[in-house]
Amino acid sequence: MRGTQPWRTNRARTLRSATTSAEDLLWQRLRNRQLGGLKFVRQFSIGPYFADFAC
What we know:
There is one protein chain. The protein is an alpha+beta fold and 55 residues long. It has one domain (6-54). Helices cover 40% and strands 22% of the residues. It has 2 helices and 2 strands; from the N terminus they run ααββ. It has helices at residues 6-17, 21-30, and strands at residues 41-46, 49-54. It has a two-stranded antiparallel sheet. Strand 1 (41-46) and strand 2 (49-54) form a beta hairpin.
């Protein structure tokens, strides 16, 4: 995460470690390009917000 503010990185890590069971199930299907070969990431910073998943 070059160029990212440290507080954003820390917040994303905190959000990734506090997932719901539904998020865990969804992430199992999205990770490692299992859905149509698309690359997904978790807790992606978009402006002042964090998206749970982004492609």
